[in-house]
Amino acid sequence: MISKTLWRAARRTVVVGVSALVLTAAVPSFVAPTMASDAPPSVADLAERLLGAVVNISTSQTVKGTEGPGAVPMPQLPEGSPFQDFFDDFFKNRGGDKDNSAQKVQSLGSGFVIDAAQGIVVTNNHVIADADDIEVNFSDGITLKATLVGTDPKTDVAVLKVDPKGHKLTEVKFGDSTKMRVGDWVMAIGNPFGLGGTVTVGIVSARNRDINSGPYDDFIQTDAAINRGNSGGPLFNSSGEVIGINTAIISPSGGSIGIGFSIPSQLAAGVVDQLRQFGETRRGWLGVRIQPVTDDIAESLGMATAKGALVAGVIKGGPVDNGSIQAGDVVIKFDGKDIHEMRDLPRVVAESPVGKAVDVVIVRKGVEQTVKVTLGRLEDGEKLANGEDAGKPNQGADNKAPAVSTASVLGMTVGELNDDTRKKFGIGADVSGVVITDVAKNSAAAERGIQPGEVITEIAQESVATPKDVMDRIGALKEQGRKNALLMLASKTGELRFVTIRMD
Fold it and tell me: Nearest to residue 123, comparing CAs of 109, 139, 133?
């Protein structure tokens, strides 16, 4: 079992399998037959059947000569990728080309054919990102120009199309990654270091890995050897079905150490279908801001165990702005799927069709209930959320402290939220509650990162409007024998979060 410290350290050294960089790359591994006994004596028959469907992808891009004569372009990584710092360190301070002339750079990756008749090829987004030209090289020596059908940076999936006319292509099908168990044999085929048609075998080492590369991380971990150039290649089960797309590895040196990650087919197949149909993704959207349910928060909400996703805010104009789901609710089940932790909710919502009416099980004030929600479209919701944030006031602070009625509680000094305090702390007009004017050092509030200028809007899911309300609510919780107080805090612009504070 890897400690949290070691895991964090390891994640800093993860490398994405991109182009032909001097850096090593990323991607997961492969499968073999699901047998409780020893591995099969040979996977030659399986490999022979699948090799024709796996392709090598080469790209070229014209870039400004600002990174020196031997430069390669900065790779385009998935949103929120943990690999960003690694590449930033590598590419910064590289010498510039004096004439700033354009030059051609090339990269290599892998992919696989899923529709021979239509010439549809699947790969990683980072393999083809910003490419001017894309070529697909087949195992029989044929090279075909490819066009981009669609790409999804959030999952690092891309779909290409080649003209299959006059060529007999081999295709493979997506399998069900949910049926894969830890210990199942898998096989990876790809183009490591430009060595096309390379087969490696391993097992499923773990499932549901989150490596902080994107909002929908749910990787299959495998120990099959993966290296630079394997990115975008398939991870097969023992039946020859694609159950993952090899994407990243953890490696202190850049080479394979047997820790690779593959996008599960359960996630990838839906993205591929949408890209083929629309040229873009159309994900479901709930319209809420969420945060984890900690043990303290669970206890404050009267929940027996910490699970689900805590709703920290509802986006105005979103699908649940009608009050069906409210800030302070905990989502524990969505459309029949259990929400064990916060990160589960965005993924299952995104996998749901736009416009679908779903049942959502929530815990509200300690009571479990089911609400019906019709999903919006995430891509529209992101624009709405960005517009909402942009419209929030950004007032400057005044150093002059207003004279207001105050109260001291749990290491905080709280005061009335009026014109004076709004001006002093730059608090927006649409924020309501009780303002925190001071936080004592080494107090329980300070330990939770609470800052002056934040606004208490609720305590234990009851609204507060005055310092007296705060005192009364804390007193009532102590009488009930509660150890922690659950506070809903609003930032100056109205962004909500929940914190628990010890009351001992």
Answer: 109
CATH fold of 11-281 = Thrombin, subunit H (2.40.10)
Q: What is the pLDDT along the chain (504 residues), one digit of tens a residue?
A: 444 444 444 444 444 443 333 333 343 444 444 444 455 678 889 999 999 999 999 988 776 654 444 444 455 555 444 455 544 544 444 444 445 555 566 778 999 999 999 999 999 999 998 888 999 999 988 999 999 999 999 999 999 999 999 889 999 999 999 999 999 999 999 988 888 889 999 999 999 888 877 788 889 999 999 888 899 999 999 999 999 999 988 877 667 788 899 999 999 999 999 999 999 999 999 999 888 898 888 888 888 899 999 998 888 888 999 999 998 899 999 999 999 999 899 989 998 999 999 999 999 988 999 999 999 998 888 777 655 544 444 444 343 333 346 788 888 899 888 888 888 899 988 888 899 999 988 888 888 889 999 999 888 878 888 888 888 888 888 877 778 888 889 888 888 888 888 887
**What does the alpha-carbon distance between residue 436 and residue 459 come to, in Å, rounded to a whole number?**
13
Beta strands, E only, 163-239: 185-190, 198-209, 219-222, 234-236
Contact (CB, 8 A) for 131 and 61: yes
> Side chain identity at 196, as an amino acid letter?
G
Give the integer Cα–Cα distance in Å for 149 and 151. Answer: 7
Residue 126: half-sphere exposure toward Cβ, Cα within 13 Å? 35
Question: Is 231 marked active-site?
Answer: yes
Catalytic pick among 152, 156, 296, 469: 156
Write the burial class of residue 141 (CB in 10 Å: 0-12 exposed, 13-18 middle, 19+ buried): exposed
Fold of the CATH domain 284-390: Pdz3 Domain (2.30.42)
Residues sharing a CB contact under 8 Å with residue 429, sequence separation 6 or more, in sequence order: 393, 422
Q: Where are the alpha helices (H) located in 120-190, listed in sequence order?
A: 125-128
> How many residues are given for the chain?
504
pTM above 0.70, yes or no: no
Q: Is 184 tagged catalytic?
A: no
Instruction: Give start-end residues of each CATH 2.30.42.10 domain in the chain.
Output: 284-390, 406-502
Options 231, 256, 300, 352, the catalytic residue: 231
Domain with CATH 2.40.10.120 in the chain: 11-281
Give yes or no: 156 in active site.
Answer: yes
DSSP string, 327-378: TT-EEEEETTEE--STTHHHHHHHTSPTT-EEEEEEEETTEEEEEEEE-EEH
Q: Which one of 19, 29, 58, 126 is the catalytic residue? A: 126
